[in-house]
């Protein structure tokens, strides 16, 4: 059975949320969005391609920063309305220079920065 991206359940804007996870460490790196064409491009190129809601354009992760995401595996949740991409991440995933976008933890009711920028 071959995968058909149109079988996914996209929202009213034609998007599906995507969680990027490091394939080796299992660390959650970021969350973004894909439309049907971004899913197709990701499969065709092996480079994770998202849809930028602010720019209304495709965004190949690392295209300008050099912090590439190479697709290892794509997983579909049970409702077919959320994706998990297992990636090989080169450099930081977050635009702040941190490995992960999830660098703030709530501990005892306080926000604590648990990860510094790389470099």
From TrEMBL:
HAMAP family: HisI. This is Phosphoribosyl-AMP cyclohydrolase. It catalyses: 1-(5-phospho-beta-D-ribosyl)-5'-AMP + H2O = 1-(5-phospho-beta-D-ribosyl)-5-[(5-phospho-beta-D-ribosylamino)methylideneamino]imidazole-4-carboxamide; 1-(5-phospho-beta-D-ribosyl)-ATP + H2O = 1-(5-phospho-beta-D-ribosyl)-5'-AMP + diphosphate + H(+). Its cofactor is Mg(2+); Zn(2+). It comes from the Bacteria. Its main location: cytoplasm. GO terms for biological process: L-histidine biosynthetic process. Zn(2+) binds at residues 78, 94, 101. In the C-terminal section; belongs to the PRA-PH family. In the N-terminal section; belongs to the PRA-CH family. InterPro entries: PRA-CH, PRib_AMP_CycHydrolase_dom, PRib_AMP_CycHydrolase_sf. Its EC number is 3.5.4.19. It holds the Pfam family PRA-CH. One of its GO terms (molecular function) is zinc ion binding. It is found in: Cytoplasm. Catalyzes the hydrolysis of the adenine ring of phosphoribosyl-AMP. Binds 1 Mg(2+) ion per subunit. Binds 1 zinc ion per subunit. It comes from Profundibacterium mesophilum KAUST100406-0324. The gene is hisI. Homodimer. Mg(2+) binds at residues 77, 79, 81. Residues 30-103 form the Phosphoribosyl-AMP cyclohydrolase domain. GO terms for cellular component: cytoplasm. It is an enzyme of class 3 (hydrolase).
């Amino acid at each position: 059975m071959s995968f058909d991206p149109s079988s996914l359940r996209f929202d009213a804007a034609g998007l599906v949320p995507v969680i990027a996870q490091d394939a080796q460490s299992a660390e959650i790196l970021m969350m973004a969005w894909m439309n049907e064409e971004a899913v197709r491009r990701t499969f065709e190129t092996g480079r994770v391609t998202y849809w930028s809601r602010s720019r209304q354009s495709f965004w190949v992760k690392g295209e300008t920063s050099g912090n590439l995401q190479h697709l290892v595996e794509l997983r579909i949740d049970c409702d077919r309305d959320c994706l998990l991409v297992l990636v090989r991440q080169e450099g930081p995933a977050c635009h702040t220079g941190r490995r992960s976008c999830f660098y703030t933890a709530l501990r005892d009711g306080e926000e604590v920065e648990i990860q510094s920028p790389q470099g």
